[in-house]
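Journal club side-thread
Mid-discussion, someone asked how the predicted structure for our own chain would compare to the paper's figures. Pasting it here so we can look after the session.
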Amino acid sequence: MMHSLRRDSLDRLLEANRELFKGKILDLGGKKEGKRGNFDISKYSKDVTYLNIDISSNPDIHSSADKIPVEDFYYDCVIATELLEYISDPKKVMGEIHRVTKKNGRVFISVPLLHPIHGDFEFDRLRFTEGYLVNLFKEVGFADQEIHIMGSVGSVIFDILKVSFGYAGSSRFRGLASYLLFLFKPFFSLLDRMTKNHKSFINTGYFVVLKK
């Protein structure tokens, strides 16, 4: 399966921070099996708790993220990648994340900006700007923020085409279009590098590392 450039970027950023995945880890919205990307947190820690509202994902905790049934200051690390866009009240969820994270603990967040609506469109609610995120994290108590911009012009165009081809025409056409897009994927990656000065205004989203 061909991943989006956004997913490739997310995998790289998670891998780059792998040394910070220590102690008790909470993966909000994560899945034990059938992960969408190549990064697997279980390779770096054997103490990972998965929380998901989808019971079919076989979560350790079957719950929504806006009321985590765990005591205060419990986890050393919390991961919430590609989750907040599904949440009606991101501030409430971030407040819960802050509550269950230990002092000096790390939190990893990723959210979309210029990215197609997800396939489960009936639940996909929000897109985020950097300014909104900075204020949101400060309001709930995360003053130490490290924000990474994900992709630029090339990633935005590639990911839109990837989704568009998935809905276009016959299965034969979709297969051919996807194959051609795969062949040109390096070109879109090059376009990203050529337009890196544009990414503050044109990007697929953000990856954030927070320290409590």
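Post-session note: Strands lie at 25-28, 48-52, 61-62, 75-81, 101-112, 144-150, 205-211.
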